[in-house]
Amino acid sequence: MGVTLSGGEGLMSFFNAKTKVATEAIAVTKRNGMQMQQKAQQLAPVDTGFLKRQIHLNFVIDGLNFLAEISGDAEYDPYQEYGTRFQPGKPHIRPAYYAQRTIFETEMGKLANRK
Prior knowledge:
By secondary structure, this protein is of the alpha+beta class. The protein has one domain (10-113). The protein is built from 4 helices and 2 strands; from the N terminus they run ααββαα. It has helices spanning 8-43, 50-53, 77-82, 93-113; strands at 55-62, 65-72. A two-stranded antiparallel sheet has the order 1-2. Helix 1 packs antiparallel against helix 4. The longest helix has 36 residues, at 8-43. The protein is elongated, with a radius of gyration of 20 Å. The two termini are 36 Å apart.
């Protein structure tokens, strides 16, 4: 069983343009993920440096879903991020996210509106 597509140059340029946009969207996602990770590491409180080293970046590409996941993997990271009843938090993941979100949305908007 097979599929034959016909449509000449117009069809091929359509597929090439969509592939290029998808490739560029992946690049924008990766770049912004790395920048967010760096911001979170810069904002992380440092005693021994363990918390900073445990801020990880993971890329997930599943079909048309491109994700950059930043996580604080130190066991005590949530206490640093949100605080406890005994001490206030020292947020580092959330401020990095809020700062990078605007940049990411702008870059993706430019990519989507490009002709």
